[in-house]
Amino acid sequence: MVQLTVWIWVGALIVGVFAAHWGAERFAKPLKKLRRQWGLTAVAGGAFVGLAAASPEIGINVVSALRGVSDIGLGVMFGSNIVAIPLMVTTAYIASRTNSLGDRDSSERSQSNSEAQEQSQQPKTAEHERHRQEHLLRVERTAVSVLALPYLGILGLVAVLTLPALWRGFQPIDAGIIAVAYLAFLGQAVLRGREESESVNWETREIATAAAGLAVLAVGTYLTVRSTENIVSALGISRLVGGLFITALMTASPELFATWSIVQSGQVTAGTTSVLGDHAVTMSVAFVPLALMTVPVENFQLYLVNLLFVVAMPVAYAGLIHFGSDEHGFKRWEVATLDLLYVLYVAIVAFWVLNII
């Protein structure tokens, strides 16, 4: 009976996660139009559109804080940021190997002016084919300076606000500080990533769909938190661990399809770097509801290991792009390195922190 109950709640978790991401996608469309209207590049736009992409994590944190199960939100916030970089880069690498930009017929290449602009930022067809042969996932140089380094600055601030013994944990004052940090992150991305703006048309139906998406997002995130509560209770594990390794993995899974689609369309940089914009939102805006409810750090060892790997992933991401290849991108061995870094994280948590054997 317990086993059956677990599977029922696993099904509910899957429904909740995909409903939340469906709602986030509807909410993202107006933000993407604003990005074009304001003349933001694909890389800079990642910091802005990341508000929608990270909205499931924001919603989960809000619901978990209101329900008094903030450990779930904390686990999702850290777990999704650790697993997403290797998961999305691996997906982007595979997607870029399975399709050539030159293999599309004329009808598939037909696109709007905005899409053509993003496409023009990608390597030419011949270069793309060469990168495939060289096993290189080409990423624009600006991904490091506009997204990765400022994101590391946000993580440094999180460490300062939550690690010292005198004020360890999440307090309401931290919410205001981290919100200002995100606004600074967004501002620098916008100022450093400008291009010619476009004229876009706004339709009432689009706005109504976005509002409906927000409603579905709210329902999905509530169902996600409730499902996680029941799953961890049935399995006899802590809410933090459930958030780290169950809910976080589930919330990252819908992004795989989006990354695959974006990279196959030829927008390799957009598909590979959007994860950093999402992470900046997750570690700042999604941080706010937890801080407002005052969440203590009960297992400091587990918290410290997670924070270290949350930092290690973008450091590895930026370092491998910048120094691993002369053309800025990921070689096959570098993609494998990111994957192995996640395996190392799981091993440390399982065998050193949790002592499962």
From TrEMBL:
Residues 100-132 are annotated as: Disordered. Keywords: Membrane, Transmembrane, Transmembrane helix. The keyword Nucleus does not apply. It is a multi-pass membrane protein. The keyword NAD does not apply. It is found in: Membrane. It comes from Halogeometricum salsisoli. This is Sodium:calcium exchanger. Residues 109-122 have a biased composition (Low complexity). The chain crosses the membrane at residues 6-24, 36-54, 74-95, 142-167, 207-225, 237-263, 275-297, 303-323, 335-354. It comes from the Archaea. InterPro entries: K/Na/Ca-exchanger (IPR004481), NaCa_Exmemb (IPR004837), NCX_ion-bd_dom_sf (IPR044880). Pfam families: Na_Ca_ex (PF01699). Coiled coil: none annotated.
